[in-house]
Amino acid sequence: MTRWLDEDELQAWLKLAGVMLKLAPTLDSQLQRDSELTHFDYLCLAMLSESDDRTLRMSELATQVNASLSRLSHVISKLEKRGWVARRPSPDSRRVTLVTLTEAGWQVLVAAAPGHVETVRELVFDDLSREDVAALTRVAGHIVERIEASRLKSTC
């Protein structure tokens, strides 16, 4: 039996669907216009910048940016050609590839971050109260957990 959405759920779903459909292309546009980066490029550089020695295993980076290894490999190749990241085999295992943010990549990220953060602030946070931010964190976290649990169930 289908569990239809009630009116409140439907309105919430339509708002969330609007966010999903509109936010990513808007962030992409800003980053491409100002920094010649896609949002995915930016996320890869940012996740590397937050890690020890600005280095992650490809599999760890794929998890952090929610990408398949093949998609990530394609993007990392593009970033590598620009000199923004470097790949190398892990000294611990030849089956593991490490990705490191280069100094040039760090400089690109540093230059792109202010415009990106300002866009995120304007689009998402400027009109929210502290309580709204806490609620957004809680609700978004819950949704991500449900999605991840669903993925785990489907792979078993």
TrEMBL record:
Pfam families attached here?
A: MarR
What residues does the HTH marR-type domain cover?
7-145
Give any single GO term for biological process.
response to stress
Can you tell which superkingdom this protein's organism belongs to? Bacteria
Parts of the chain that traverse the membrane: none
PROSITE patterns in alphabetical order: HTH_MARR_2
InterPro entries reported in the protein's UniProt record: HTH_MarR-typ, MarR/SlyA-like
- Write down the PANTHER family for this protein, in alphabetical order: MARR FAMILY REGULATORY PROTEIN, TRANSCRIPTIONAL REGULATOR, MARR FAMILY
Protein name listed in UniProt: MarR family transcriptional regulator
Its taxonomic path starts at:
Bacteria, Bacillati, Actinomycetota, Actinomycetes, Propionibacteriales
